[in-house]
């Protein structure tokens, strides 16, 4: 039996265990500096877009091979593959809405039944026969408000009523997305996000999220 819906996940520290910007920053020797800014942004202490631009600037000059290195270091959160398969089997579309980077997300999720990925694109340039990062983000940044807009536009394009949407995230950048969904799930979340959630899950298993969110949707 199927019942069409839309299941949306944040990526970093939600669908995967790591923060990709920190993995990329490893190659610069400035991971701790970048991680401190990420933590403040996820607590809601900094404007996300501004903080992302500052963190991405650290990556200037790195070869694009760092994307593959970062993808190889990523760990999917427990239940990630199972929840995507379970949602697809139930007729649900699955989307990843991330303040992270498309180039890494697409490698990490290759072969999974992910219907949509909306994330940031890093600008590159040719330098000495090698493609390197410029330290800039291309186009509009997927920020807190952007995630909510993407959830709504994906649902609309697929003919899914907002009453059939579930959003899952962990930080302040996910507040609008959780509020836009019929059921918002705070997953092992920062204090800033918890008051905005319909369901709070502190067990790091995305199948638990799916089960609890579906129950909440039926209430």
From TrEMBL:
EC main group: hydrolase
UniProt cross-references to Pfam families, sorted A to Z: HAD
Alphabetized UniProt keyword annotations: Amino-acid biosynthesis, Hydrolase, Magnesium, Metal-binding, Serine biosynthesis
Family of this protein: Belongs to the HAD-like hydrolase superfamily. SerB family.
EC code(s) of this entry: 3.1.3.3
Protein name: phosphoserine phosphatase
Keyword set includes Ion transport: no
């Amino acid at each position: 039996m199927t019942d069409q819906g839309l299941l949306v996940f944040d990526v970093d520290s939600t669908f995967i265990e790591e923060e990709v910007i920190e993995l990329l920053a490893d190659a610069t020797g400035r991971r701790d500096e970048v991680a401190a800014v990420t933590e403040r942004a996820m607590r809601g202490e900094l404007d996300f877009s501004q903080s992302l631009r500052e963190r991405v600037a650290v990556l200037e000059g790195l070869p694009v091979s760092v994307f593959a290195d970062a993808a190889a270091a990523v760990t999917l959160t427990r239940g990630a593959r199972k929840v995507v398969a379970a949602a697809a089997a139930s007729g649900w579309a699955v989307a990843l809405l991330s303040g992270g980077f498309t180039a890494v997300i697409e490698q990490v999720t290759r072969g999974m039944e992910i219907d949509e990925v909306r994330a940031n694109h890093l600008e590159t340039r040719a330098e000495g026969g090698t493609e390197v990062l410029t330290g800039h983000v291309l186009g509009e940044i997927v920020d807190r408000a952007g995630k909510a807009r993407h959830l709504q536009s994906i649902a609309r394009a697929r003919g899914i009523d907002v009453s059939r949407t579930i959003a899952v995230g962990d930080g302040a950048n996910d507040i609008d997305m959780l509020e836009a969904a019929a059921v918002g799930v705070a997953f092992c979340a920062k204090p800033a996000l918890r008051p905005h959630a319909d369901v709070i899950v502190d067990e790091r298993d995305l199948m638990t999220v799916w089960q609890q969110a579906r129950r909440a949707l039926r209430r």
